[in-house]
Design brief:
By secondary structure, the protein is α/β, with parallel strands linked by helices. It is built from 22 helices and 13 strands. It has helices at about 15-20, 20-30, 50-55, 95-100, 125-140, 155-170, 175-185, 200-210, 235-240, 255-270, 275-280, 285-290, 290-305, 315-330, 335-340, 345-350, 355-365, 370-380, 390-395, 400-405, 410, 420-430, and strands at about 5-10, 35-40, 60-70, 70-80, 85-90, 105-110, 145-150, 185, 190-195, 195-200, 220, 225-230, 250.
Length: about 425
């Protein structure tokens, strides 16, 4: 018998399938959750390839977790039957709305990239606007409020999503739905932590096909490590039994220390290194860790530059920073630099710039390696390898100078040329 859809998921990408949907499978297997996930593809007028494949497979696929647990090498290949398939927002809105007003639906999860949770006046096609429309239908149907668990890597993602939904409702003059959202719905801010590489290499894919007795084009690979922080109410575990299912989850009234640790150490180290690695011809993260020059670079930014800016106990920071190198060195991850490089300008602002500014405030000087990483990002963005938004790509297509890049307040929120020494250090690294 098909499980009832309890979770509406915006985003069909590898990460959610290897993180949230993997957790739902665990809850079904170990904690009697008995729920399914309905995925929504939010952008595009046609199904993406993963969406088409998921529908053909009726939501069935496999995950492979490869890496180390307690120092021992593991490779865990598992079937996932938690999802029901994909609905296309641009063409199947009635079907999506039907799910949204069902009695069984309780949760909404999402990963629409750092740029996905946004408000654009008059634009009803954004992700928050789509959710606002669904909440209008649910409120009108008199159904129980929903719990939102966004996974986008922005600060206060739950609060921000709620703010933009309410802004759209205000624009539309819908005070009744706004009251429903405030009184009946719960918005949790979150932090997600798992490196998901995506598709396996050809040799591994062939080996997995032999093990499974079939070739799964949807098979997604990630590391065994996972960590989920939810800033939400105490009763959430009773409805979403993550801990009972053995998931490494923390419920907390203040997730900021965890977020700062993860974004600065893990994501910051990625973003501050990948452009240079691509320029030097590397393809995977583990290749960088194995290279003497880049291994030294990682240790410098992790322990000398990021470490002092994170306000957590010494042992806590040290253990996490050391775990980063082990995770980056995972020989099974096959984490492509090109994948991480997507939208690097917005990522550098969120993941690296706060560390640079905090370091400068603490020591009255710039952290040399992190600052130089912006120069490498500029140099990379001026090549035909750039993988960013149309606006960012158009800006760099005009071949701006370093000073013009640093002065772009739309990128950084301020003119970075005003920071003493910044222009010179970035220009030197960009040569």
């Amino acid at each position: 018998m098909a499980r009832p859809v309890k979770i509406l998921q915006f985003g069909e990408g590898n990460f959610l399938r290897c993180f949230i949907d993997w957790m739902v499978q665990k809850m079904n297997d170990k904690a009697a959750f008995d729920g399914a996930v309905q995925i929504v593809q939010t952008i595009g007028d046609e199904y993406s390839v993963p969406s088409m494949l998921l529908n053909e497979a009726k939501g069935r696929y496999h995950t492979c977790l490869r890496g180390f647990i307690d120092g021992k090498q593991v490779e865990i290949l598992e079937e996932n039957t938690a999802t029901t398939g994909v609905l296309l927002a641009s063409k199947e809105w009635d079907a999506i709305e039907k799910v949204a007003i069902s009695d069984e639906l309780r949760f909404v999860v999402s990963n629409t990239t750092e740029a996905g949770i946004e408000y654009k006046a008059g634009n009803a096609a954004t992700f928050p606007a789509k959710v606002a429309k669904l909440l209008q239908a649910r409120a009108k149907a008199g159904k129980k409020g929903l719990v939102f668990i966004p996974c986008e890597l922005i600060e206060h993602n739950g609060d921000t999503l709620a703010k933009y939904i309410l802004q759209y409702l205000a624009d539309w003059g819908d005070a009744a739905t706004a009251k429903y959202v405030k009184d009946e719905c719960t918005f949790c801010s979150t932090l997600v932590d798992r490196i998901v590489a995506g598709r396996p290499d050809a040799e591994s894919a062939e080996r997995y096909a032999a093990q499974l007795g079939e070739k799964d084009e949807l098979l997604v690979c990630g590391e065994p490590f996972h960590f989920f922080v939810i800033e939400g109410p105490d009763w959430l575990e009773s409805e979403l039994p993550l801990q009972k299912a053995g998931i490494n989850v923390v419920y907390t009234p203040d997730m900021q220390p965890y977020r700062t640790r993860k974004v600065r150490f893990l994501n910051g180290a990625h973003t501050a290194t990948i452009p240079a690695g691509l320029l030097d011809g590397f393809e995977f993260v583990d290749q960088l860790v194995a290279d003497a020059k880049y291994n030294k670079h990682f240790r410098t930014i992790l322990f000398d530059e990021i470490f002092p800016t994170v306000d957590l106990p010494f042992d806590n920071k040290k253990a996490y920073a050391e775990s980063i190198l082990e995770r980056f060195a995972n020989p099974f991850a096959h984490h492509r630099l090109a994948s991480i490089a997507l939208n690097s300008v917005s990522k550098w602002k969120v993941r690296v710039l706060p560390t640079v500014l905090d370091f400068y405030r603490m020591y009255n000087r710039l952290p040399p390696a992190l600052t130089a990483s912006l120069g490498k990002l500029v140099k990379f963005s001026l090549t035909d390898q750039i993988a960013d938004t149309a606006e960012v790509a158009a800006f760099f297509a005009a071949k701006p100078s370093v000073k013009e890049v640093l002065a772009n307040e739309a990128f950084w929120g301020r003119d970075l040329n005003e920071i003493p020494g910044m222009t010179e250090l970035v220009e030197a690294a960009a040569r």
